[in-house]
Amino acid sequence: MNTPVAPAARRAAFAFGWAFSAALAVAQTAPETPATPAPAEEKTSGEVVQLDTLTVTTAIGTYHQETSSMASKIPMDLKELASSLQIMNATAISDRNAVTLVDVFGYVVGANQSQSNINGFTFRGFPNTGSYTQNIQFDGLMGPTLKKAATSAANVDSMEFLKGPNGVLYGQMNPGGLLNIVTKSPKEVQESYMRVTAGVYAGEFNSFGSKVTNTFSYDTTGPVPGVKGLFYRFVADIGSVPTSRPGNWDRIYTFYPSLTYKWSADTSFTVKMENSRDRRRADDGQMPIFTSAPITVVLGGVNVVTAAYGENATFVTAPLNTVYGDHKDGNLDYGDAISTFFHTAIGEWQFRLNSRSVWHVDDVQQFTLNNANVWFPTSKYATPTSLIRRQYNHVKNGHRYNYIDANAFRKFKTGSLEHTVLFGVGGGWEFFGNKRIAFGPNVTAAQAITLYNPILDQVPYPAEGTGATDQKTDQTALGEYVSDQMRWGKLHVSVGARHDHQEVSGLDKLNPGPTTFSNVLDAYTKQAGVVYDVTPQVSAYASFSQSIKPQTVIAYDTNGFSDFPPETGEQKELGVKFETPGKNLNVSLAGYEITRTNVLVPTGQNFTVATGNATAGAAISRLDGGQKSSGVEIEVQWQPVKNWQVQAGYAYSHARITASLKFPESVGADLNNAPRNTGNLWTRYNFPTGSLKGFGVGTGIVYTGEAWGGDPTSSVYFKMPAWSRVDSAFYYKWKRYDFSLNIQNLFDRRYISSAFSAQLLNVGEQRKLTFSAGMKF
């Protein structure tokens, strides 16, 4: 695969970063020789950390964050934003005792977890699918180091969820919203923190202690000895975090060294490095087994007989501890990244230049259930007597992301109107290599396994080469954007526009002649918003925003070409925000409508012979009408007293098909994995006095309403029941030590959390107890 930096050089850079950070950590804890006393200003800074004076405390850090740069790329008070932005800060994340970011997705208003990997969630009813650069940012730039695994929480300072399409500042994206993961940065005072966790599942299918999870994390930061203005940070996280399902295992390690150099208060340069590796058993989840009587439905003007469609489609599953994958089935996911951040001020202008480069590979080898018609006898869906003919699948994907973003902003006045103008340019190069070492064959009918009590590990992997492809795709992108945040008394007005130019080209190296393709995107997006300060505590806003997303280049029309026009999104939103004078109560209410056009869907047919750029067997796709999501969201953060914190939210979202050329019967049908009702509550209370001083208790509730699985344009479209989960936590803080016991799924509810596809379901985790102990030094 092409790589922008030689592997040896890359390994050397990471080795240097790890060694340097580790040496700094040792230097900070080693005895120091007497030195000339520092000036009074520096001595005061050094006296911030007095470890020996730490005592029992009952105060709780607030869950509310007042300012952010995500929604506008300039620091702004959240109450002045004409958009919905929810932030899970460090306190909110640590109170859930999060090991990975998946542990907190359930507490995000308007988001719904659909998978356990990096992009396994939906925003406002729309999935976060497509390129893995879309809808996920790391410190404002694209590119994860892991694709199929959840991101570690050890290096996360906060998670920012910006709702709706925001293509003006961030370029290509799905219209539901954007997640920005803010990672930890070096600090100017020395501090270190060590944390260990041990978890056990104690549910219906796991006796207490039969499956154990464990992690170790270490975080150290401070000034580099003898080098004024240079600061370091090193975060490491290592552990075993398997799911509760039988035989599953998952081992992960991540390292994050970083350095910051400050020339002055206005000029700084930071470099952050990441190294992540995750190896685990592959598990496709559960299957819906349909028990309802067959009916006839009209799909695309054709009568189709199915028992798996509509309100009356009933299904069961095998016991939720049933696994259909062999123990040898596995995924290997690993990646490296380097990000840089430069900031300076020249006169009244603030300049920033940020970059991110990522090298990522994921390797999957398994007998899968998701890539073929696996039922025997052949059917579109499973029945109680079906057998499963699994398909052999060995795929190795490589991603290379190299992106930069440069912008400048300043404030000025024109009469009584205050402006903050922003000019920026962003873009880069992305490479994707999709190498199917084997894509089949299905096992024979004689080797099929049963839906109930399947006998696994009986079949060796077949020879490689069936259905092999080696798809290479290169993408270059350049976007220019401008915005103006204006203020006139109680009125705030924002406007912005962006132009994107993107070129995509690629081919299948195993069959380059007929598979060469190219595509060009040239588009504009706009956004505007207005906020009015009704009172110092209440603001009302209205906004309009757009997004654009290029179509995947491996989807072909009936002529075998992949030059579909880009998908577009457009949102109108109204809202009200309230905060008390002391800012201990914050409430936001939003109503929105998002339209999505040029939606690409499969036709259900495949090419029987090579056609255009498509090979025989490739799926045929088409553009089909539009989709719409409309709803309301409310979010509340309340800290009645310093030792009590409450966070709650509710969302109603109706995401449905609004137009369909080939399947007009599907108009009005809900989208897959888009529950109309979701809600959550989390509260923590610390005992302020008495014998329980230092102790705290927490309780959380996550609710997801009924949702549809499958696809209303196919013969499998069914309703999944609502589910709820109760979590609890116990805390104790003494001097420099923190202890906590978190219990997820306290009452051990059995539930299906979401549908991965028309024939695969994700199983909610069993009761899990996680104990953690942390120490500051």
Outline the fold blueprint.
Layout: H1 7-29, H2 40-46, E1 67-68, E2 76-77, E3 85-88, H3 90-95, H4 102-105, E4 111-113, E5 121-123, E6 126-127, E7 136-138, E8 141-142, E9 156-163, H5 167-170, E10 177-183, E11 191-201, E12 212-223, E13 230-240, E14 250-262, E15 268-281, E16 289-290, E17 295-299, E18 302-306, E19 315-316, E20 330-346, E21 349-368, E22 375-376, E23 387-388, E24 391-414, E25 417-442, E26 449-450, E27 469-488, E28 491-508, H6 512-515, E29 517-533, E30 538-549, E31 567-579, E32 585-597, E33 600-606, E34 619-623, E35 626-641, E36 644-659, E37 677-686, E38 695-704, E39 707-710, E40 717-720, E41 723-734, E42 737-744, E43 752-757, E44 760-763, E45 768-776
Parallel strand pairs: 7-10
Antiparallel strand pairs: 1-2, 3-9, 4-5, 5-6, 7-8, 9-10, 11-12, 11-45, 12-13, 13-14, 14-15, 15-20, 16-19, 17-18, 20-21, 21-24, 22-23, 23-26, 24-25, 25-27, 27-28, 28-29, 29-30, 30-31, 31-32, 32-35, 33-34, 35-36, 36-37, 37-38, 38-41, 39-40, 41-42, 42-45, 43-44
